[in-house]
Amino acid sequence: MYDVRIYITRIDTLRKNITISN
């Protein structure tokens, strides 16, 4: 369960990064 939480957090960071990039 903890791994999943970290995975979601990483995806959220990546999505924000992509949004800023675009």
Quantity of strands, as a count: 0
| Number of continuous helical runs | 1
Largest sheet: none
Average pLDDT figure: 87
Overall geometric form: rod-shaped
Radius of gyration: 10 Å
Helix content: over 70%
Which parts are unreliable, with pLDDT below 50 for 5 consecutive residues or more? none
Label the structural class. mainly alpha
Between the first and last Cα atoms, what is the distance in angstroms? 32 Å
β content, as a range?
A: under 5%
Order of helices and strands: H
What this model shows, in words?
This protein is mainly alpha-helical and 22 residues long. It is 91% helix and 0% strand. It has one helix at 2-21.
Concise overview:
Helices cover 91% and strands 0% of the residues.
List the helices and strands and how they pair.
Blueprint: H1 2-21
Essential attributes:
about 20 residues; about 0% strand
